[in-house]
Amino acid sequence: MTTPPIKVAWITYFPVEWLPEAPEELRNLPRHHPASWQRVLLRSWLENNPGLELHIVALRKQFPRSLQFRVGPARFYCVRTTGGLRAPTLFWYDTWKVRRVLRTIRPDLVHAWGTENGAALVAARLGWPFLVTVQGLMSWYCRVVPEATPYNRLAAWLERCSLPRAPLVTTESRFAVDFVRGRFRPRAVMQIEHAPDPLFHRVQRAPAADRIRLVANARFHYAKGTDLLLRAVHRLQPELPLELVHIGPPLNPLADQLRSELGAGFWDRIQFRRDLTPQEVAAELARATLLVCPTRVDVSPNSVKEAVAAGVPVVASRVGGIPDYVVPDRNGLLFEPGNLDELVRALRQACHHPLFRHGKVEAGTLAQMREYLSPETMARRFFEAYQHVLQTVPRHAP
């Protein structure tokens, strides 16, 4: 007798505008966060897991209308929302919208992606078995970043309301597992690494021989350590042939402050790239000598994983999950978060390292990390998470 596939509903955010198969009216929307791990997991399952029936429910006020479409066997439900009703209602508006869709789908379980947009809290209200995937630890973020916005603080409060109620929480990195388990005490926690796009495993490296090309791929923000990065490069430029490519636009008061502090001449030498596709990011990594990630607070930055899989040496802060992927003297160097002098020393050391100065990493470590960060490993682990929930949580129809 054939076992029916597990019917899973993802809620409440998916970057549909990044999908080439999406209707044109969605592809033409302004691009939000790419959440590339969701798209990587989707592709892996569409190709390799017939035991899964996937339904993806996305809520957004920017949708021109509510509509449905398919990508292979996966069905998307894009639900247009009214602005100003989501967070102020503590996401009861979302709960109502999602419940209407799920009553037609009748899933076996619900997979809530993140707490930032209320998904975890909504899932806890719906009545179906569910799990929550942490995408960012907002409780930790608000401790570290002094100018955390009111919405950031609301998201941190939502973590306290929703994660203790979850039958299972998945998160990346040993750090995040310990944080979630110790602070929120859900019934179960699984460590599942979000894999970068497979194209980063296939990057053909060709770093410049006559200069050291640094690439940073992150928001231009205090939390990401952009101030540290620019000050460090400014300090080192007189002694090293450095060039800096920053992926992401400098559009905030921090950029104005640094432009004034470091001078127009230095600022004009930085290459700012924005709205890059994964293929364009991979092309930047192909030419990079080093990726620099001086973040102050990150669970597991995807830019670091992409560089690690591509074979680019990484200079990064010793924070969150980064030490799980960056092995000192093998594929990069680590420094204490927020410490400018340590970042300068780490960059100087990397620029004189026998491997890193040529844009190379230790071959055995590269192979190990590519396996650890593979889409196949991520897909297998998430399927195990679904099975765990279905085996431990009674099923009933809300």
Count of domain modules: 2
What is the level-2 CATH architecture name of the largest domain?
Answer: 3-Layer(aba) Sandwich
Number of strands: 14
Order of helices and strands: EHHEEEHEHEHHEHEEHEHHEHEHEHEHHH
Tell me the strand percentage band: 15-25%
What characterizes the major β-sheet?
A: 8 strands, mixed
What's the CATH topology name of the largest domain?
Answer: Rossmann fold
Description:
The protein is an alpha/beta fold and 398 residues long. It folds into two domains: 209 residues, Glycogen Phosphorylase B (Rossmann fold); 175 residues, 3-Layer(aba) Sandwich (Rossmann fold), CATH 3.40.50.2000. The chain is built from 16 helices and 14 strands. The protein has an eight-stranded mixed beta sheet, sandwiched between helices. A six-stranded parallel beta sheet has the order 11-10-9-12-13-14, sandwiched between helices. Helix 8 links the parallel strand 9 and strand 10.
List the helices and strands and how they pair.
Layout: E1 6-12, H1 24-27, H2 36-48, E2 52-60, E3 67-71, E4 74-80, H3 92-105, E5 109-113, H4 119-126, E6 130-133, H5 138-144, H6 150-162, E7 169-171, H7 174-183, E8 189-191, E9 212-217, H8 226-236, E10 242-247, H9 253-262, H10 264-268, E11 271-273, H11 278-287, E12 290-293, H12 302-310, E13 314-317, H13 322-325, E14 332-335, H14 340-351, H15 363-372, H16 375-392
Parallel strand pairs: 1-2, 1-5, 2-4, 5-6, 6-7, 7-8, 9-10, 9-12, 10-11, 12-13, 13-14
Antiparallel strand pairs: 3-4
